Amino acid sequence: MIAFRQLALQRGGTPLITSADVRINDGSRVGIVGPNGAGKSSLFKLLLGELTPDQGSIDYTNGLRMAHMAQELDALDRPIIEVVMDGDPALREVERSLEVAREAGDNHREAELHGHFDALDGYTARSRAEQLLMGLGFTQPQLRAPLSDFSGGWRMRVNLAKTLFMPSDLMLLDEPTNHLDLDALLWLEQWLVRYEGTLLLISHDRDFLDAVCNHILHFDHGTLVLYRGGYSTFERTRAEQIAQREAQRVKQEARRAEIEQFVARFKAKATKARQAQSRLKMLERMEDIAATRADSPFQFTLPCADKTSHPLLALDHAELGYADTAILSQVRLTLAPGQRIGLLGPNGAGKSTLIKSLTGDQALINGKRVEGEHLVLGYFAQHQLEALDIKASPFMHIQRLSPGASDQDIRNFLGGFGFKGDDIFSEVGKFSGGEKARLALSLIAWQRPNLLLLDEPTNHLDLDMREALTEALAAFEGAVVIVSHDRHLLNASVDEFWCVADGRVTAFDGNLEDYRQWLKQREMTRSTADASSGAAEPRVDKKAARKAAAELRERMRPLRNTRDKAEKTMVALQKDLDALEQSLGDDTLYTDSRRKDELNRLLARQGELKTQLDASEQAWLDAEEALEAYADTLDAS
């Protein structure tokens, strides 16, 4: 259990957390959300002891083992499989001690250490580390390659694998999906769902938060509020609260106006002076309810070029790759105005190669690339952030593109991307990754493309900016090709998918859930092929196997009944709780002293319902996990 008790923190004179009281139960998977700069990463530093709170405390369960991603990996010359296994220092210490005992011929000590090694799951450690790395996109031959062979994004994956390998009761993950493709993200999602400890996860990927988390911790103007459920549930609950809060604010403003009017009229009259003073004190005591800022700070459009061509761009019998090494062959595709395409495919299959070839940045090995007469191409990729002039400001970047544009037009345009006031004159070198990504997108939008090629455009963007980009893409009138691990963006922005796999680019007939199943089937086929290429499998007694499977299904029956019963109970309890909380929304419950007993009764009942709901959720979860374990056994048989 983690408890924040009257926790307060400020950085550089800016309050980030003010008097937070939050309790996170063991086993919770908590998504942490809030605008960039709200204090999410600082909260992790508090938990790690790297910062000291200005007020209050953080209490933990005794002996809590904590795993978090280090900023950098130093062991550049070591194979990545060894780097991952370094995540378990106790295991490494036993390995070193075993080596010493062997060299000394101390059989008694060696036997004792083998017991410790077994207790630390040492005999499965290497295979566990391999599974983590391969799940995150590495191939078997790469596991023995040194860390220095890999780029920064792939080193981040090694770092993530090392963190997942660490024995832990509490795991802190800060934007773990950055630098992952969709395949690796789907794998990580399933791994985290099965993680048995407490998870605190900072992410701007709403679908990822929905799939993994059962609570959301929201940074709300300095306060920390814990919500039950995934991100979509939080979003609905938050919207309802905002509407209620706004109605309460309007009501309070009307009351304030009445009091101020009374004071203005009667404070000079002797007969009314005491009443006027009383109302002045009431006015001073009245709690301010700030107007809710429900709208996103980012609101922009993606204008389309006035002229277009049909087709905009085509590849004919193209061979794509590097030097003489072909990655994709016989690529024939045509991009027409208004087409909206999402690129899917396994890691390393050639999605980014296809995008670069479409832009013309990468020459074709063979075949033709044909541009339409009026093609205006807008291209976003992570390397473009590095191409920004770090000495120039956002204003200067736009001005270089359009020297004749008015200052006010540039100000208005950049304001939609979150650059307001003096920010538009700040040097880009001082910007965060998210700010640079916003600027790169703004430069594309300014040039009014009719074809957008976007390679992981949401990396470094927070939830508000991702939502603004999603809305802008939905309204964009030109053609779009997107590579992204953000499923919400893909679902809202594209009409069709192309699959890049096995050296080909083909239309994918299905949605993202179909793609998940396609990946699973592909992996199963590959595993079967690997198994068949090895030693012959032992003969299986099919009759005995069928009997064992039938017995297993019979044992699953009561678990299914328990799960279904718990689910029905959860629905009924949630319905009662919703009705009760609606009753608690009545303002007179708190202001009318005659309803005090009713208020206490409702609050007590609310506590009972929440306790029962927690118990039902745990019963459902236990049954579901047991059923999954049985299902895995059936699949294996």
UniProtKB/TrEMBL annotation:
- Which residues belong to any copy of the ABC transporter domain? 2-246, 313-527
Q: Record's InterPro entries? A: AAA+_ATPase, ABC_tran_Xtn, ABC_transporter-like_ATP-bd, ABC_transporter-like_CS, ABCF, P-loop_NTPase
Instruction: Write out the entry's keywords from A to Z.
Output: ATP-binding, Coiled coil, Nucleotide-binding, Repeat
Give start-end ranges for the coiled-coil region(s): 549-619
Region called Disordered, residue ranges: 526-546
Q: State the SMART domains in the record.
A: AAA (SM00382)
Q: Report the GO molecular function annotations.
A: ATP binding; ATP hydrolysis activity
Does the UniProt entry include the keyword ATP-binding?
yes
* Range of residues in the leader sequence: none
UniProt keyword Repeat, yes or no: yes
| The family this protein is said to belong to | Belongs to the ABC transporter superfamily. ABCF family. YheS subfamily.
Question: What name goes with this protein?
Answer: Probable ATP-binding protein YheS
Give the species this sequence originates from: Larsenimonas rhizosphaerae
